[in-house]
Amino acid sequence: MATEIKVPALGESVTEATVARWLKKVGEAVQVDEPLVELETDKVTLEVNATAAGTLAEIVADEGANVTIGALLGSIAEGAGAPAAKPAAAPAPAAAPAAPAVAAPAAAGAPSAGAGVMPAARKLAEDNKVDTAAIAGTGKDGRVTKGDVIQHLEQPKPAAPAPRPAPVATGPRARADREERVRMTRLRQRIAERLKEAQSTAAMLTTFNEVDMTNVIAMRNQLKDSFEKRHGVKLGFMSFFVKACIVALKEIPAVNAEIDGTDLVYKNYYDIGVAVGTPQGLVVPVVRDADELSFAGVEKKIGELGKKARDGKLSLDELSGGTFTISNGGVYGSLMSTPILNTPQSGILGMHKTMDRAVVVNGKVEVRPMMYLALSYDHRIIDGREAVTFLVRVKECIENPERILLEA
Questions:
Q1: Could you tell me the residue range of the domain that residue 16 belongs to?
Q2: Which of the residues 31, 250, 270, 368 has the least number of beta carbons within 10 Å of its own beta carbon?
Q3: What does pTM read for this prediction?
Q4: Residue 148 catalytic?
């Protein structure tokens, strides 16, 4: 008996995936829990494992196919023999078995065009150009009645999708021989959709400030060796910014909120998303309850999530439900940028490259390590005063790190 390979549950709000790669070929032996196929969703790549031992008998969904939850991917045959060939059509039996005394009722939803449809129902269906095979019969032996057809006609029809504009015929590309065309991954498609969605739905603005990194750099240099020796993790700047943002979020709760229909949802927890660049695209794993973690706890969690992101091992839960996001474009050399919201969140902090610049301190020109900060926010929920106050509070906490400990 063959065991079906089906698309498993993909996680909250994820209903579709793309078959990225089959790890086994038809005819190869498989063991229980052995990975068979990789599915790529708009958030993560996951493996589907074998639920039975045997031989991969059939691949129904080829690489590149879009599949939904519960869809059939293939099947596993018992034993290690050659797989059964996929029948093109059921062969006629050599000798028909004796017919049962009572004919089996027609399958629901697929009655025959003859005895399975009452004459009045057939006439009404023909007049309205309705395929009776799409109607579940409620009459005797599953026959389609006139009432079934009327009920089918009265059901609201789904709105037809807007037709896609026909591509403009431009002829052969002039330099196609020196181009490479690659299909966008589902992750990249989803990134594009979410960024466009943020621009289309949110009243997005960005406010800027600059922060003097002198004191936080000095504290880090002073404590980094003892910190690493004690906690087994390096002391980075990200933990300072996560903690500074939490201080500011507690003071300006609108930045930690979201819009749900006509409601504002204020969140009394702090799940901070930290943007991570990977070869597949940008992902935002979430540090849960970051306010309850120590500096070492934040650094360990960020390091763990970053490694899993680069290895493609993040789970859907680790990518879902953030309340606020921090993106550090400075690691790539960015001096200033306007980050785009990670919807449905209402705020995102952009960090940038630290550079020595001449600034005026107490009436004197000094060279200080300065960083530009950018807060993009949804003006529908956050006023300009709140956005500026939030960013100033982050600046104050970084310039005077003791404020983080005292939440002052």
A1: 3-77
A2: 31
A3: 0.61
A4: no
